[in-house]
C-alpha cells in the first residue's frame, strides 16, 4: 500500500463519484426569478446539488447564476452514466485545488524554515501543528505499531473533508459533504483501506473477521454459532462505513437547515423581535465552524480506530 497512491486516491475518486451516484437534486429557476428569491433563499444552495451555481457579480444582488455544461451520457450496455459536472463536482475540484496549493505553500515554508534552522511562522506553523497532532495523537495510537503507511491517506482525508466543510460556509460556496454520494465515497475508501489492512496484517486469518469459527467451543456448537454469528460479523463490517457516511452527511446538512429556520423566522416576524433569531443564526454559524473541524476529526479518528481494530483482531 503505497503512501503516494493513497494520498491521491481520495480527491480523484470523489470527483469521479459525485456525478455518477447522485443526479441533480434541484433545478434552479431562470436568472431573473433566482435573483428575486436570492436574498431570502441563502442557505438551501449551500446544501443542495444542481446543474446551476452562483458566482460573484458586481451588480446587485451581487451574484449571477450560471448553468454548468451538460454532456451526452455514456452508455455501457444497460448502464447509463451522466458525467456532466454538477455544483458539488465543481466544489470538489475547487477543494482539491485549494488543498493542493495550500499544502504546497506550507511545504515550501517548512523547507525554508528548516534550512534557516527556525520554526515556520504564521499559517504554515498552525497547519504543521495540526498535521503533527493528527498524526501523533490520533492516527498512530489507534492504528497501532508500524502504522506509518496509513498516515498519508488519513491525513489527506482529514484535510480534504475539512476543506470541503469550510467551503460550504463561505459566500457562493456549497457544502459538498452535505451530499450523501460524497460522504459514501469517502466511507467506501475507508472501508477498502480497512479491509486491505486486515488482509495484509492477518493473511488467511482475515477470514475469521467474516466467518465466525471459535476453536475453543465444543465441536457440536461451532456450526451453530457459525450460522448465527457469521451474518452478524458481515453486518458489522457494513455498518461501519454506513455510519461514517451518514454521520458526516447528516451533521453537515443539519447545521445549514437550522440556520435556514432561524433566517426564516427573521422574515416571518419582520420586527424588532427578529433580533433574537438573527443572533441565534449567527451563533449557529459560529458553531458550524467548530462542526467543520469536529466532523473531519471524527471521521479520521473512527477510520484510524477501524484500521487498528482489524489489524489487531483475534477471533
Fold and architecture overview:
α4 (87-116) crosses α5 (122-143), α7 packs parallel to α9 and α8 (222-269) runs antiparallel to α9 (275-311). This protein is mainly α. The protein has helices at 3-21, 31-37, 44-47, 87-116, 122-143, 151-167, 180-202, 222-269, 275-311; strands at 52-56, 63-67, 74-76, 79-81. The model is unreliable at 1-8 and 15-40 (pLDDT under 50). The protein contains nine helices and four strands, in the order αααββββαααααα. The two termini are 25 Å apart. The strands form two sheets. It has a two-stranded antiparallel sheet. A two-stranded antiparallel ribbon has the order 3-4.
Task: List the keywords.
single chain, two-stranded antiparallel ribbon, 315 residues, two-stranded antiparallel sheet, disordered N terminus, mainly alpha, 9 helices, globular
- The number of helical segments is 9
Low-confidence stretches: 1-8, 15-40
The assigned structural class equals mainly alpha
Which outline best applies? globular
Radius of gyration: 23 Å
What percent strand? 5-15%
Distance between the termini: 25 Å
- Main beta-sheet annotation: 2 strands, antiparallel
Total number of domains: 1
E-strand count: 4
What is the ordering of alpha helices and beta strands? Answer: HHHEEEEHHHHHH
What is the helix fraction of residues, given as a range?
Answer: 55-70%
Provide the spatial order of strands within the biggest beta sheet: 1-2
Mean pLDDT figure:
81
Amino acid at each position: 500500500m503505497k503512501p503516494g497512491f493513497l494520498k491521491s486516491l481520495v480527491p480523484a475518486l470523489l470527483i469521479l463519484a459525485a456525478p455518477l451516484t447522485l443526479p441533480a437534486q434541484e433545478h434552479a429557476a431562470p436568472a431573473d426569478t433566482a435573483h428575486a428569491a436570492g436574498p431570502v433563499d441563502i442557505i438551501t444552495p449551500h446544501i443542495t446539488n444542481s446543474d446551476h451555481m452562483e458566482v460573484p457579480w458586481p451588480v446587485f444582488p451581487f451574484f449571477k447564476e450560471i448553468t454548468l455544461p451538460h454532456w451526452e451520457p455514456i452508455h455501457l450496455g444497460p448502464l447509463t452514466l451522466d458525467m456532466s459536472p454538477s455544483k458539488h463536482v465543481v466544489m470538489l475540484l475547487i477543494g482539491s485545488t485549494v488543498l493542493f496549493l495550500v499544502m504546497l505553500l506550507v511545504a515550501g515554508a517548512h523547507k525554508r524554515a528548516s534550512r534557516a534552522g527556525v520554526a515556520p511562522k504564521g499559517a504554515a506553523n498552525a497547519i504543521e501543528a495540526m498535521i503533527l497532532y493528527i498524526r501523533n495523537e490520533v492516527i498512530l495510537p489507534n492504528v497501532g505499531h508500524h502504522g506509518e503507511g496509513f498516515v498519508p491517506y488519513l491525513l489527506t482525508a482529514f484535510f480534504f473533508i475539512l476543506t470541503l466543510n469550510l467551503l460550504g460556509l463561505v459566500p457562493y460556496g456549497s457544502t459538498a459533504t452535505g451530499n450523501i454520494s460524497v460522504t459514501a465515497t469517502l466511507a467506501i475508501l475507508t472501508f477498502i483501506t480497512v479491509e486491505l489492512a486486515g488482509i495484509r496484517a492477518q493473511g488467511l486469518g482475515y477470514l475469521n473477521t467474516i466467518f465466525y469459527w471459535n476453536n475453543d467451543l465444543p465441536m457440536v456448537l461451532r456450526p451453530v454459532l457459525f450460522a448465527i454469528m457469521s451474518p452478524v460479523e458481515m453486518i458489522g463490517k457494513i455498518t461501519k462505513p454506513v455510519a461514517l457516511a451518514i454521520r458526516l452527511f447528516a451533521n453537515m446538512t443539519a447545521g445549514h437547515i437550522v440556520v435556514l429556520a432561524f433566517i426564516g423566522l427573521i422574515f416571518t416576524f419582520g420586527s424588532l423581535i427578529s433580533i433574537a433569531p438573527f443572533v441565534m443564526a449567527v451563533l449557529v454559524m459560529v458553531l458550524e465552524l467548530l462542526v467543520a473541524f469536529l466532523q473531519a476529526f471524527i471521521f479520521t479518528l473512527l477510520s484510524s480506530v477501524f484500521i487498528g481494530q482489524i489489524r489487531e483482531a483475534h477471533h
